[in-house]
Amino acid sequence: MLSVSVSAVLPTARADLERHTSIFNARYDAYLWPIVIVWALDRGLRLLRLICCNLQVRFSKKVISRTYTIASYSKGSDVIRLDVRTDSFLATPAAGQFYYLYQPTTWQGYENHPFTLGAWSSSSIGPDEAGSSLLRSTGTHDDFDEEDGAFSASKRQSHGQTLTFWIRPYDGWTKRLRDSCLASPTHTTSPTILLEGPYGHHCPIATFGSVLLITGGTGIASAVPYILEHIALSRSGKTATTQMHLLWTARQASFIHQVFARELRDVPHRDDFSTDLFFTRQDASHKDDEEGHDVALRTEIQKGRPDIAAAISKAAMKAEMMGQRVAVLVCGPPAMADEARIAVHGVMKRGCFGIEYFEESFGW
């Protein structure tokens, strides 16, 4: 579908270009055509990247593997969890990455949607050694191994990766994906999803003695990879970070429970990690969604919103007293990012120059 779309656009673009530039008698063609060539090359390379990310040909085994997806929707947290299994050599997951997602089987399959990579797992190692766990139970036992949360042997044909995304459904494509999940008795479906990526950048927060992570809702996807990276680097002594603090505000407490029961299940017991957790809405009708997520959190999940300015000021003062630099990583709604940015600026105006601000995009 994408190749047809690109080939259809090129003649139209050429006709439009010639119509708008004909009055100049080709005086500016030497400047315009390089732009068209660069645009076409960009589209062609993206199409090639899309193919490489989603189709893997194994000549030795005479098989062609493709990406495989499980989407599950939780009413309690109002979040779609998307697990995409890929064998692509381009899938080298790391903190700070995002991918474009396509659903080619829909009538708007040409659209792409950027989402931050929240977690990942490799089928070549155990779940405790991986960047995260996979879905524990999805109702599709033929595809997943319920015991270790990884794909079953029928799907393990290589050292592939399963990439996890958290999606808050609104309108458009995310709403249709949620409705597709709700149509299943288990609220789980297997849509055809294509990946394009990875893109993004890595923030060097491991070089800071203290790290403050401020996230809102599904913005936790930007923080989880850095938390897991910190744990991995701590084991090998390759990080300067001695204290990491997570300030997370979610709409529903059940989403917090779900993430701490899976991706962050080993984190609450660490001495170098602390949390302040908040939720803004309470839905008693879906409290059963939290069953099975009995992770002992050191901090009670509070109802309300945090004082971001006070948290940043406290982190800066503590780091300054210990002679450390502090990194503030923010991923949340614009108002949250604005408040954090102003607070960091205020701290710097008071003479604390050992603080650095990093911001991950929450929307597009």
UniProtKB/TrEMBL annotation:
Q: Which UniProt keywords apply?
A: Oxidoreductase, Transport
Q: Which domain of life is it from?
A: Eukaryota
The UniProt entry, under InterPro entries, shows: FAD-bd_FR_type, Fe_red_NAD-bd_6, Ferric/Cupric_Reductase, FNR_nucleotide-bd
What CDD domains does the entry give? NOX_Duox_like_FAD_NADP
Which GO BP terms, alphabetically?
copper ion import; intracellular iron ion homeostasis; iron ion transport
Pfam families given for it? NAD_binding_6
Q: Which residues form the FAD-binding FR-type domain?
A: 56-205
Q: Name one GO molecular function term.
A: ferric-chelate reductase activity
Q: Name one GO cellular component term.
A: plasma membrane
Q: Which family does it belong to?
A: Belongs to the ferric reductase (FRE) family.
Protein known as? Putative FRE family ferric-chelate reductase
* Lineage, top ranks: Eukaryota, Fungi, Dikarya, Ascomycota, Pezizomycotina
